[in-house]
Amino acid sequence: MSLKSFGAGLLAKYVVSKQKKWAADPVGTQQKVFNELISKAKNTQFGKDHGFDHIQSPQDFARKVPIRDYEGIKHYIERVLEGEADVLWPGLPLYFAKTSGTTSGAKYIPLTKDSMPAHLNGARDAMLCYINQTGRTSFVDGKMIFLQGSPELEEKNGINYGRLSGIVAHYIPSYLQQNRLPSWETNCIEDWEEKVDAIVEETIDQPMTVIGGIPSWVQMYFERLVAKSGKPVGDIFQDLEFFVYGGVNFEPYRNKFESLMGRQINSIELYPASEGFFAYQDDHNDPGLLLQLNSGMFYEFVPADKFFDADPPRLTVGQVELGVNYVLLVSSNAGLWAYNVGDTIKFTSLKPHKVVVTGRIKHFISAFGEHVIGKEVETAMEEALAQLDFTVSEFTVAPRVNPAEGQLPYHQWLIEFDKPPDNLVKLGEILDASLCRQNSYYDDLISGKILKTLEIVSLPAGSFTRYMEQEGKLGGQNKVPRLTNDRKIAEALISL
Prior knowledge:
- The protein is α/β, with parallel strands linked by helices.
- It is built from 18 helices and 20 strands.
- The chain has helices at 3-23, 26-41, 45-49, 58-64, 70-81, 116-134, 164-168, 174-177, 184-187, 192-203, 215-229, 233-236, 251-261, 374-387, 424-438, 440-447, 463-470, 488-495, and strands at residues 95-100, 106-111, 143-146, 154-156, 159-162, 180-181, 208-212, 242-246, 266-273, 276-280, 289-291, 297-303, 326-332, 339-350, 353-360, 364-365, 372-373, 391-400, 410-419, 455-458.
- Helix 1 (3-23) crosses helix 6 and helix 10 packs across helix 11.
- The radius of gyration is 23 Å and the shape is globular.
- The termini are far apart.
């Protein structure tokens, strides 16, 4: 055993011990975070505008601070971008994480000295939990690759900005730098196709033990490895221990991954965002993600079916229930306040608090009142993959509101198959039956002859990659929404 792997085992025990302490007192932990946030921010412009001096409880906070998305906080962000201090959080942020927005154009999310540790430690602690659970430490001596955005940063009024994954790359500890791939120069390549080819060249002969990234882009990397070597990825990287991912559900990709791997592989799910590192899988056999209650973020949860009400309830960790779909709000030491992250989650455990991401509050289909969410279509696909012999590269779902004359409207599934099933009709029946079981509104619409059963469009190979390239979103942390309530993406895919 190397000194590094021995040290990793000790650190794992320490981190898990601390984790268990705060997780055992969720209400007290969150109250402490809440008190610190309000106290530190009371003299900021936002704090003064919202009477932080008079906020004593989460209930006071909910009365004084309305729910906001990026548009609602943008005028404060713009002041910070101009170099004004003490606007949302004391001082100036260290960075802005620049992301793409649907209604706001580019979004600039502040990252402060206080908020950075959560971004830096989340993935590390997830891997330490794996070590503590399995006792396996040897992977820390191998090479680790993380497919991410460019670490090159730009500057605006003295504040650096760039992609979150690129910012985090500047903080990789020196003891891990020699293990980390790809090289700095390769990570700086902006063209994704060129970057993947360069990563293949750099890594194909390396003793890789950990791979991380969004599943769809790691899948592309795997395909290039197999094409170049003529061997399964598992033969190329015989010591590959596990796959670390976040951003999308891995299950619809798992069959294709294992086909490319030539064997099964353990996986660890993370829940990172520019707004904060919210949760990670502390037990690789349990799909629930441990909510980070001790990381400078105060959470509120709004029942998704009441989110668009005039005055929706805002619950804290002590008030949530299992199995309810909630919209996630966060207030943080980065200067976000009652901020709508846009994600919907469900609690799978309350001892400790664990969640699964169920979709996006804006990414659903409810053209007919069915309110089908991302988790439901992904579950349907998982059930179909378990019953039929096929693999999927990518898929998305959209409503067909105005079908041909004489037809009922329906949901259209646009699927890029790696290996198509023998019978598309049977696949459609399995998907539709699963949705009916999961969603009573959809079931009522089908049985009431308001909707007809779904239809499948089989897309040519490479369709989703070409679409993302056309949109200027190929690679990095970008992904195609699993479902939409309009046909913009569907029509673009069909027309390619």
